Inverse folding.
């Protein structure tokens, strides 16, 4: 799509690189209208929210089984959201969480250091799940051969599945998540970042993979949404939605309190994700996830629209760093640099080109919206 033909929302910076975006008569997109109509009225980052959070914390504390050391579990990446969540859980909610860490083989040294600073200072116990590298590598190679945009899905699925499988297995009822309205009320369209579809992942690996996934963690939508939630009684709580959450102030607090170091852009604590979001997705598909992140900042009144547009005129990270990351990733995934570049030049594909569960996922999302479990725009 030529830049001159792209229509941009007059309120945020989402645009027609999302092919399903809808604008009203004032040029405001459906993401913004949905936020103002359905999300903002229920958002409580104020005193009322803090009172509600204390009630939730009390319920969690009272639910801890006898002889059980932990009353909840937190998946920690070392990013700003999960780092601050650890502080909130321990110091504000007065909980004793187990910190669950997944090593997919791509974390930066600074990420590991940030995690160690937070958990060490707060005296939190951790459990680290190391994904078998040969399986991880084979699945990521399969996704690269598939030519779909969602190259971070293997990592995302390992982290998501590992956390929830572990929680249920060890009978930890409450999972605390760093997901929050302030930074995630607009999610990337499915054309950019497809949702949890176990059928598609297995189909891609069956076609392009060579190594059996014997230990890789799996958790499909049915297991997560139905079996774990309603049969096993697992509960997901998002504490950051009940507190004021201004990212710049939170980062400054984490740095002052824990010597936590920022990574630049959202999700750049991981070298593969940094390359995928900052280079691969933009150069190969024309999808820039910063539009979602910056639009969330606009809706949360963290920045102005003009500031966001200015940021989008800059590169996510330097070209030299992108090439360095590309060489590192190619070697780690057993490609030559030339082979990796050739992969990036192949015709693009989407979830529609592989067996998938999109119809069922769409019905589940409609139901979740109908009963009030989900209020964001999914498409």
């Amino acid at each position: 799509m030529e830049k001159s033909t792209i229509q941009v929302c007059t309120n945020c910076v989402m645009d027609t690189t999302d092919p399903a975006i809808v604008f009203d008569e004032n040029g405001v997109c459906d993401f913004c209208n949905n936020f103002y109509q359905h999300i903002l009225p229920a958002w409580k980052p104020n005193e009322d929210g803090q009172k509600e959070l204390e009630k939730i914390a009390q319920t969690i504390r009272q639910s801890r089984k006898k002889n059980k050391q932990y009353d909840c579990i937190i998946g920690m990446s070392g990013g700003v959201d999960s780092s601050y969540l650890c502080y909130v859980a321990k110091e504000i909610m007065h909980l004793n969480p187990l910190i669950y860490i997944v090593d997919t083989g791509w974390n930066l040294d600074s990420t590991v250091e940030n995690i160690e600073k937070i958990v060490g200072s707060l005296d939190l116990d951790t459990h680290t799940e190391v994904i078998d590298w040969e399986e991880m590598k084979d699945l990521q190679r399969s996704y690269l051969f598939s030519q779909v945009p969602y190259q971070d899905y293997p990592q995302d699925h390992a982290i998501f599945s590992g956390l929830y499988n572990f929680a249920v297995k060890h009978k930890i009822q409450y999972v605390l998540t760093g997901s929050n309205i302030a930074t995630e009320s607009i999610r990337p369209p499915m054309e950019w970042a497809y949702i949890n579809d176990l059928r598609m992942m297995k189909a891609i690996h069956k076609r392009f993979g060579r190594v059996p996934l014997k230990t890789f963690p799996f958790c499909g939508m049915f297991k997560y949404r139905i079996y774990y939630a309603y049969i096993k009684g697992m509960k997901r709580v998002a504490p950051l939605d009940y507190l004021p959450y201004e990212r710049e102030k939170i980062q400054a607090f984490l740095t002052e309190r824990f010597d936590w170091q920022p990574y630049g852009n959202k999700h750049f604590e991981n070298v593969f994700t940094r390359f995928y979001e900052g280079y691969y997705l933009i150069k190969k598909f024309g999808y820039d996830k910063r539009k979602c992140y910056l639009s969330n900042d606009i809706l949360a009144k963290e920045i102005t629209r003009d500031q966001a547009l200015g940021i989008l005129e800059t590169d996510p990270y330097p070209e030299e760093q992108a090439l360095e990351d590309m060489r590192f990733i190619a070697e780690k995934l057993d490609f030559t640099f030339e082979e990796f570049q050739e992969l990036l030049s192949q015709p693009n594909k989407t979830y529609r080109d592989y067996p998938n569960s999109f119809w069922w996922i769409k019905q589940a999302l409609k139901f979740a919206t109908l009963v009030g479990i989900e209020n964001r725009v999914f498409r």
